[in-house]
Design a protein that fits this description.
The protein is α+β, with helices and mostly antiparallel strands. It is 35% helix and 29% strand. Strand 8 and strand 9 form a beta hairpin.
Length: 202
């Protein structure tokens, strides 16, 4: 584990609505589109066209465990070729297909997949997690006289070089980006995010 830091930012409702419109055009979900955008961002930051990112699935593929308390999460890699001759719509379509195949095969243990494919999983140092509005927590939770409110915890250590958590809310998207401080300083990350967004807009 390396020393890490967290940057939080928000995507407003208007931009979120535009992203959902693009998703609808591709017959995709907001998750597919955001994941594709994130992989494009990493590809531009790393100056490569071949990007693999780890993501998670619920692991509750059997009705028996749907409401059972426990940890069933599966971690799986999603690999995408981000080449200059592809349009946004093309990349989102490829991401959608990758996610569909990943979900269909999520019960296959990651360690077996790595062994059979001789996939260098230790080189996949990026992660992505998305939570839809269906799972949004209220601002406060009450239990008798006890009231609980969310508290942002900034991790002192990170297991990845960079990971992004996106939570859909009623007023847009709330994002947390966790980075390895040995690679990304807070200032460097801010500059990269602005620069790559500007490059893509251009």
């Amino acid at each position: 584990n390396g020393r890490g830091h967290v940057q939080s930012f928000k995507i407003d409702a208007e931009t979120t609505a535009a992203l959902k419109k693009i998703s609808d055009q591709c017959k995709a979900t907001l998750y597919h589109t955001l994941f594709a955008v994130y992989e494009i961002f990493l590809a531009k930051c790393c100056y490569t066209e071949d990007i693999a990112v780890l993501t998670v699935t619920s692991g509750r593929t059997h009705p028996f465990v749907e409401n059972m308390v426990g940890m069933f999460v599966h971690t799986l890699p999603v690999r995408l070729q981000v080449t200059s001759n592809k349009t946004w719509l093309h990349i989102i379509e490829e991401m959608k297909q990758q996610i569909v195949e990943m979900i269909e095969n999520q019960d296959y243990p990651l360690e077996y997949m790595v062994e059979r494919l001789q996939f260098p999983i230790e080189k996949v140092r990026a992660g992505f997690t998305y939570q839809s509005a269906d799972h949004e927590l209220p601002n406060t939770l009450s239990a008798g006289e006890l009231t609980l409110t969310p508290f942002e915890v900034k991790n002192a250590a990170t297991r990845s070089d960079v990971s992004l958590l996106i939570q859909e809310t009623n007023d847009g998207l709330s994002c947390l980006m966790e980075c390895n401080a040995a690679i990304f300083s807070e200032t460097k990350l801010d500059v990269l995010m602005v620069q790559k967004a500007t490059d893509r807009a251009a």
